[in-house]
Every structure is written in structure tokens, then in C-alpha cells.
Amino acid sequence: MTTAPQPQGAEQAVDAQKAQDVLDQLMKPEIQQSLTTLVDNLPKLTEMVTTLTAAYDFAAGLAKDQVFINDTKAGIVEFFTPVVDTAKGLASAAIEAGDRAEADTQTVGLFGLLKMLKDPQVQKTLRYTQAFLNVLAERQQQR
């Protein structure tokens, strides 16, 4: 679908109407006040744009710097590897303990319980549990 070309006089009339609309907008007091504020703050805006441009250029340069990317990746891997290894160790210990508990059908009696209480790991866990419960109780009293 083709449109018929407008006469040159019609184009000038449209342009003149647009110019008049812009002038009408510029005559509004709130627009004039905004423009005055903008002109007053041009030095600050120029400084901000310059700083943002420099920051953008720096970030864009880093994003393209393969050495920086590889060093950052290596640093992140180095930081998280021990955390991941510890989490995997705890998870595998929990799974193994669950399997052992599932396989062991022996009843734990009173003497077995007393014997377990002598185990240093059980004592450590009981002390931790007691301390944790004390902290929770103190925090609840503070509320």
C-alpha cells in the first residue's frame, strides 16, 4: 500500500503545528521552572555523566578482559571449594548414619543409653544442645 505524497505546503503546516505545540509546552510555568533547574545543575549533571561514562568504560573493559574473568572465577572457586567439600562431607555422613540406623534393629536399653552418655561425641553434642537451648531461652526473654 502506497500513500500519495503530501504537498510540500502540507508538510510545512504539520512542522509549523509541531513547533507551535513545543512552544506552547515551553510557555508553561512548571516547564520553565524545570528548565531553569536543569540549566542551573548542568555542571553537576556533566560531572555525573562523565563519572558514569568512566565507570561504564571501566566495567565494559573488565567484562572483556579474559585474564580478569579467569582470575575472578578462580577466586570464587577457591573460596567455595572448602565450603562445598564440607557440605558434601556432612551430607555423606548424614546419609551413612541414616543407613546404619536403618540397618541396626537392636533395641537401645537403659544400660546402652548410659554407655552412650560416656562417649565424648555424645557429651559434646549434649553440651552444644544445652547451650543452644539456653541462647534461645535468653532471646525469647528479651522479647
Walk me through the structure.
The protein has helices spanning 8-26, 29-40, 42-64, 66-103, 110-117, 120-142. By secondary structure, the protein is mainly alpha-helical. It starts with 7 loop residues before the first helix and ends with a helix. The model has no long low-confidence stretch (mean pLDDT 89).
Structural key phrases:
single chain; 143 residues; mainly alpha; 6 helices
Total number of helices: 6
Average residue-wise pLDDT? 89
- What percent of the residues sit in helical stretches (DSSP H or I)? over 70%
Cα distance spanning the termini: 75 Å
Number of E strands: 0
Percentage of residues in DSSP E strands: under 5%
Strand count, sense and closure of the main sheet?
Answer: none
Shape: elongated
Rg computed from alpha carbons, rounded to a whole number of angstroms = 37 Å
Q: Structural class, from secondary structure content?
A: mainly alpha
Q: Which consecutive residue ranges, at least 5 long each, have pLDDT under 50?
A: none
Topology at a glance:
Layout: H1 8-26, H2 29-40, H3 42-64, H4 66-103, H5 110-117, H6 120-142
